[in-house]
Amino acid sequence: MQRRIxxxxxxxxxxxxxxxxxxxxxxxxxxxxxTTTTVPETSTTTTTAATTTIAETTTTTAxxxxxxxxxxxxxxxxxxxxxxxxxxxxxxxxxxxxVSADAVRDDDLLVLEPxxxxxxxxxxxxxxxxxxxxxxxxxxxxxxxxTVLYALGPNGWSVYTTVSDASVLTYLETxxxxxxxxxxxxxxxxxxxxxxxxxxRALFTADVAVYRDGEPDTPAFEAEIECTxxxxxxxxxxxxxxxxxxxxEGEAVEAxxxxxxxxxxxxxxxxxxxxxxxxxxxRLFQRDYRLxxxxxxGPNTLRVxxxxxxxxxxxxxxxxxxxxxxxxxxxxxxxxxxLVEIFGTPTADTGWYTDACDGSQWNKVSWAGFTAIFTDRSxxxxxDGWHVDDLSAVPTWLYFAGGIGPTTTWAGLQALxxxxxxxxxxxxxxxxxPYNNGRFTLDxxxxxxxxxxxxxxxxxxxxxVSC
Length: 467
What we know:
Blueprint: H1 2-21, E1 24-30, E2 33-39, E3 76-77, E4 85-86, E5 88-90, E6 98-100, E7 109-113, E8 120-122, E9 128-136, E10 145-153, E11 156-164, H2 165-172, H3 176-181, E12 187-197, E13 203-212, E14 221-228, E15 234-237, H4 251-262, H5 276-288, H6 299-309, E16 316-319, E17 322-323, E18 326-327, H7 332-343, E19 348-349, E20 353-354, E21 361-367, E22 370-375, E23 382-388, E24 398-400, H8 410-416, E25 419-421, E26 427-431, E27 434-440, E28 454-460
Helix pairs in contact: 4-6
């Protein structure tokens, strides 16, 4: 019996030792990683299975930034030659200039850049970019430039609308402003978009400068345009620099014609068209009132014209048929009283006398360097002419038709068409306006030098040629 018990105990010990070798290892996974549990732990000797935990690493790359970075996401359509879509790449790390990866024409590449200066943008949504597009490369062909609105579509960045330099010039050439002032020959057009409104109105405004080809420093023509963007955009000039000029039309020009007509510079039709006749009338007005003679009615010309036309001007204009509003042919007492009202008390008065040349009665009344002449040559005593005795002594507010003033030289008179007669001591004369017996501050001899200044001249009976 004892031997059986001993044998049973021995078998149990062997079974226990073998059970340790077959221990079960359980591996469970959690969000934090893997854990290992060994069961059972009933022996002093325990075997644990090795476990390796691998952490998952995620790399995040920031999207490209910069004004044109969106073009890196999809190909871009060629707005000039219909060559389709092209991949583009940035030329610097600011993504502010893109160049096509392949040619759009021969070896020429498409270049995209932000508008500079940046215009006021309204209504552009996500997936829409307004940029300057141009062509660069070795082909030598004309390199067009345009402002292009791109919209991101299924094929890439598609051209939505284009404002090309050539199309702006085509519009300008239809306007009377450009026809009158634009340069001839080859030109370079530079439109600068100042406002782009895509919120319902679909229009843009632009400052346009046109340069003669090869003369990039000073624009030959400048204007501001506003265009409505449709299938073909429709434009209008909105320039308003305060200057009326050849080619302009409208109510402002009609008012200009009326003012010029009121003071006898213009006798044409008041149709609101700034044509050659209006230009010449403005130029003559500027000449007489000592303004820059460019034929354009700028703020200064319009101011002086308005004052003269309304009678508010302090300038008194002496013409070949009147002084101010006092016309030749007015009875002498009436004319004299009106001239005294203008000039004040005379500084000299000859009284009536018999002229030795024609036997008529004459009366000369002087104010400083200016003399009014009254005669009865027509049978009645009337205001019959005037004469400048000393141009440097006349009042500063007394002007003379033709723009003649104290600083007028012989060269200036020649520009008006003056001639010179060396007889009778030498005098200058004009046919229009008709002035005669003009003298110089110094004896010019047979021919006055260009810088010779004038001292005197007269009109009507103002010849004073000795008989």
